[in-house]
Amino acid sequence: MKIVTVVGARPQFIKAAVVSHLLREKHEEILIHTGQHFDYNMSEQFFEELDIPNPDYNLGISGGSHAQMTGKMMIAVEDVLGKEKPDWLLVYGDTNSTLAAALAAAKIHIPICHVEAGARTHCMTNPEEINRICTDHVSSLLLASTQSGYDEMKKEGLSKRGILVGDPMYDAFIKYSSRLQIKDVVLHMLYGGHITIPDEYYYMTCHREENTSDDKDLAEILKATELLDAPTIYPVHPRNKQRALKLREKYGFNKVILTEPVGYLESACLVRNSKKIITDSGGLQREAFYAGKKCVTVLDFVCWPETMVGKRNELSRPIAEEIVDKINHKQTVDNHYLPFGDGHSAEKIVMALEHEVNK
Ligand code: UDP
C-alpha cells in the first residue's frame, strides 16, 4: 500500500510521530510537509525530538488569508499526488493543511483517511470547524478519536465510513511525556535569557484567532495570570508574540512567564508537572485530562466534551475573574474513565487502512 500523508502544523507532527513508523513497517509512506508551521521550534524541533521521518516534500506554504493558504496548498498537493499516485491520502485534525490536501485528493479520486474525524464544536465561526466538516464529508475512511466524535458522524450520516480508533495524541502522551524531567526543561524567555522553572506553576497556551486577534481578550487572559496564586508559564505562538509582549509591558503583568514555543517533550513534561492548565488549544485540553490536571478552556465551544466530566475542563469567557473562579473549582477525577482509548490507536489506524485496501 502506498500512502501520502500530509502534515503542516504542530499537533499533526505529534500524531504522525506515533503513526508514521508503524505504517512504514509494512507500507510505503510519502510525507508532505505543507510548511504551515515553519519556525524551528514549531516544526523541525518536533521532527528531531520525536524522530519523525523527514518529509519527502516541503511545500513551504504559510501565511496569507485562509483562502490564499488553502488555495496554494491545494495546487501544490495536487501536483505531488499526480506524481506519486498513492492508494490513499492520510490527513490529521483540522488545519488548513488538512482541508487543502483532502479537497485536492477528492477531486482526483484518491480515497482519503481522516484521523480525528467527527470532532465538532458546532461553531461555524471557528475556522477549524469548517475544515473538520468539509474534510469528513469528502473522506472515505473516518477515524474517530472518541465516542462523541463517532456519534457526531452518525448525526451527519457518515458513520458507515467511520471507525472509533481512539486518540493518537493519547498514544503520544503515554509514549513521550515521561522522556524529560522538569530539571531538563530549558525555557527561552521572549525577552531573552533563560529561566529556572518555579516549583509551582500554571501552564498556559493561548493562540486561537478567537482570543488573539485584538488586544482586549488577550489582555483579560493575561490579567487572569496576575490573580493566580503561582506564576504562569506561557509559551507564546509566533502569531501573537508581539501582542503578548506589548500587553505585558503596557499593563505590567509580572506573574506571567512569556517564553518561546517549546518542543513536545518539553510541553508534555510541563503539563505533567503543572498545577493546573489554562488554554484554548484542543490538544492541551486533552493533555490536561490525560495528566489529571484541572483545565480551563478560554473558548465558548468545546471539541472534546469528554474532558468536561467532573468539572475537569470548564469553558470560560475571556474575562479574568471568570477564568480564575473556574480554575479554582474542584474537579473529580475517575481514573477508570478512559474516553481517549487504550494508547494503541496508531495500530488501529494502520489496521483500518489495511482493511480498506484488502476489501
Ligand atoms: N505544544 C508544544 N509546544 C508549545 C505549546 C504547545 O509542543 O509551546 C503542544 C501541546 O502540548 C499540544 C500541541 O502542541 O500537544 C497543541 O498544539 P496547538 O495548540 O498548536 O494546536 P491545537 O491542539 O489547538 O490544534
Q: What is Rg? A: 20 Å
Counted up, domains total: 2
- Largest sheet at a glance? 7 strands, parallel
Question: Count of helical segments?
Answer: 14
CATH topology call of the largest domain: Rossmann fold
Helix-strand category: alpha/beta
**What is the C-level CATH assignment of the largest domain?**
Alpha Beta
Low-confidence stretches: none
CATH architecture tag of the largest domain: 3-Layer(aba) Sandwich
- Which term fits the overall shape? globular
Helix content: 40-55%
Structure description:
- The model has no long low-confidence stretch (mean pLDDT 97).
- Helices cover 42% and strands 16% of the residues.
- The longest helix is centred in the N-terminal third of the chain and has 19 residues, at 66-84.
- The protein has 14 helices and 15 strands.
- The chain is an alpha/beta fold.
- The protein has two domains: 2-167 and 341-357, Glycogen Phosphorylase B (Rossmann fold, 3-Layer(aba) Sandwich), CATH 3.40.50.2000; 182-327, Glycogen Phosphorylase B (Rossmann fold).
- The protein has a seven-stranded parallel beta sheet with strand order 3-2-1-4-5-6-7, sandwiched between helices. Strands 12-11-10-13-14-15 form a six-stranded parallel beta sheet, sandwiched between helices. It has a two-stranded antiparallel sheet with strand order 8-9.
- Uridine-5'-diphosphate binds at residues 10-11, 14, 205, 235, 261-264, 267-268, 281-284, 287.
